[in-house]
């Protein structure tokens, strides 16, 4: 072979490629220093010293917490896959050259223990099926050149799109092209659960059923839109189909459902009831709403009292474990002017600012109260000054307080996907927007010019049991509900940079804060208004 093999780790990604480089095999035995620098081996050396190379690479992979592997040259000797399959942390493999996955490569991939995802240019269907049986999802980049409304409506751009698609949308009339596309789709697909017919015709329904039967599809639910379609005709055809295809429909569990539009439901509802019944129902509903509102208000009052009691206990722990000095009094927390916020937010805290608290001295006592405590977050000129907890999901602390009692106010919690010890590229912290201002009730204050134009407010502290960190704000915005800012880790530096540029573009103010690909960021998120979100991003200030 006129090439060697190179291993290199960048941002928790292992890159494997061919390289034309002379290797001094005598120096390769010196493995005292574990490094992510270019590691180049000849294939002969690997075969002679397989265990040495494997153990050395495995140590590096574990040290740098590598989860992804990028293969630049697929046509190499496959001994590189024999090595990579032994790295139990590898969950994703990306073949970046435009080539077909071969049976030889497949055989190696099937022996991986924790592999979850494969990106490649193209592969045969039987390979996709074999990998799918092992819960390994494969995504192909080879796009389908032809384009029409059917393919566009269903976002069918690649072979794997056809294979994994669970819902099919029919919004056009049947013609030869659409029929051929449906036939091709069903011959490949292995996950289809439902078909939604937007533009109905008898021919459409009959054609779909015929091809479902042809491919022996099972457990399919067919939805038909009522709007702009003749419901009587639909019922007649469905009745005919159930008789004509009775054996296939019953055996393969094919069901039909008519989806009514809101206009249809309202119109028919008004036809079936009279005004007296409406008045009676309205009176009952209003009475129930009044009772519910009263109970809800009382429960919220009790919940808030419980939280205030817990905050007093927590603040006492801080006071006890952090004796104040004369200088400490100068750092008490002052809130914004009354012109900006409600009077309930204008007060001076009795406890010492957590910027100057020795968190390690109180962590043991806090963990006795809640063993899921992971840190303490503080945002200047807001009421946000709380211990942060983390559960196994993002639902528990929406309705439980610090003592794990059921509470509608919830508590401030870290995203369950984040690592609270080492912190990820994006550490996300959530809290309810409580009207009285507790929890993240004052996060919306950061949308005020008097807050974001004050440079003293740009620094956020987040303390963990292991370290005290500070972060500088670089983006604040209000957005409709979306998950695109809730990514905790990224597959590449470019993906992280694109993410940072996206959230920066939304910011209501230019903070002139630089964020590099090597940085870590923190995200605070809460509700605002009826359904929007207020989001704050800050980058860690490196000591």
Structure notes:
The chain is of the alpha/beta class. The protein folds into three domains: 4-140, no CATH class; 149-270, no CATH class; 297-540, Sortase, Chain: A (Beta Barrel), CATH 2.40.260. Helix content is 34%, strand content 19%. The strands form three sheets. Strands 13-12-16-17-19-18-15-14 form an eight-stranded mixed beta sheet. A seven-stranded mixed beta sheet has the order 3-1-2-4-5-6-7. A hairpin with a 3-residue loop joins strand 18 (521-528) and strand 19 (532-540). Helix 8 runs parallel beside helix 9 (202-214) and helix 13 crosses helix 14 (359-369). The longest helix is centred in the middle third of the chain and has 47 residues, at 275-321. The radius of gyration is 30 Å and the shape is flat. Residues 324-356 have low confidence and may be disordered.
In short:
The protein has 543 residues and is an alpha/beta fold.
Structural class estimated from helices and strands? alpha/beta
Low-confidence regions = 324-356
Report the helical percentage. 25-40%
Q: What overall form do the CA principal axes indicate? A: flat
What's the N-to-C terminus distance? 48 Å
What's the total number of strands?
A: 19
- Report the C-alpha radius of gyration, rounded: 30 Å
- Overall pLDDT: 84
CATH homologous superfamily designation of the largest domain:
Sortase
Architecture (CATH level 2) name of the largest domain:
Beta Barrel
CATH topology descriptor of the largest domain: Sortase, Chain: A
Count, helices: 16
